[in-house]
């Protein structure tokens, strides 16, 4: 029986999609990568994933693992050859266990980030990972890309939030590493091979994630600064004052606020005129929000931050966060831009921005630089609008990238902070990692996936 004939045996339960029904799974979120697939399989258990992987291994069919299809670098999109099977985990959406005593939650990896956050809230716990796509992104994709978000400063990214995994390997065997232990010093930490691997080493089917006590006090402020160096100084001073209560520290440039005013005029923007830069600060702790808010306000005004707005209630705090979270959508509405998800040593960000901006505007007169991101953990989204705001702008992408990445390298930074490599940065990865590092990566890939079936054309 052929591969497709065996797949059709699943079709009666709507677990397999063929033809036109596969189209939404073959197009990435940015509508940049359009692939083709033999079919889309939607298993609802680890056993079904195991069967599918074994079937693919038998017929040497490539596998593209897919979560919520929110990848920003084409990591979850099949290639154009039409010779792969997409395995979507959307039906594997069960919360397996919430252990409040151990501060852990065990889930199938098709659950969304929002579902995990809510399950934690139900037992007065916090799952701190947080980014704009929480309602649609799935935990499997978050693990596969080692996703970050706005709370990495205090809690770390998905790598730090993961205690155990269950993974279906390339031969269909299942590695059960679902251990909810903070201390387990028994050999190599295998789970870390799969976190951040973008589906190229195995298919993550379950995970044990860390929970934290639910903060009862929050304080939020939007503060104008005249230069990124002032933002770094404010961050360091605030951390010295209140320690790890600094949960988020977001940097926002004037072009971001201008785009928000243009496309979302109903969003409240307190600054008049628009400052060159501002930072969005959130503190969290136990205790009382009013006391924490007063402490934040006192610190800001004592240190000369006169153009600062401290949220007095949850509604005002939510309005500040809506500004930050609406920036990517405002960019999308404005047109096609060349995007960079980079990380730098925090103290190097002001110099990077000054030097890269100057050379960029000299090389591309009239360009609009939209810079924002998670200053607290060194993750900057450095995006560029040119005169052409259609897909034609990608003709300039290589030249823009070479300029940006040269400055990233000179400041000891990384070309990918939280979005991954996927298809978008595959060639660039070969240029920024040493030959030894690439050799080690390829050896790991060959060891775990000797037929090269998992997510071909991504990362390596």
Automatic annotation (TrEMBL):
Zinc recorded as keyword: no
InterPro entries referenced in this protein's UniProt entry, alphabetically: FAD-bd_oxidored_4_C, FAD-bd_PCMH, FAD-bd_PCMH-like_sf, FAD-bd_PCMH_sub1, FAD-bd_PCMH_sub2, FAD-linked_Oxase-like_C, FAD-oxidored/transferase_4, Oxid_FAD_bind_N
Domain of life: Bacteria
Keywords noted in UniProt: FAD, Flavoprotein
Cofactor: FAD
Domain FAD-binding PCMH-type: 33-214
Molecular-function annotations in GO: catalytic activity; FAD binding
GO biological processes: respiratory electron transport chain
Family stated for the protein in its record: Belongs to the FAD-binding oxidoreductase/transferase type 4 family.
Name of the protein in its database record: FAD-binding oxidoreductase
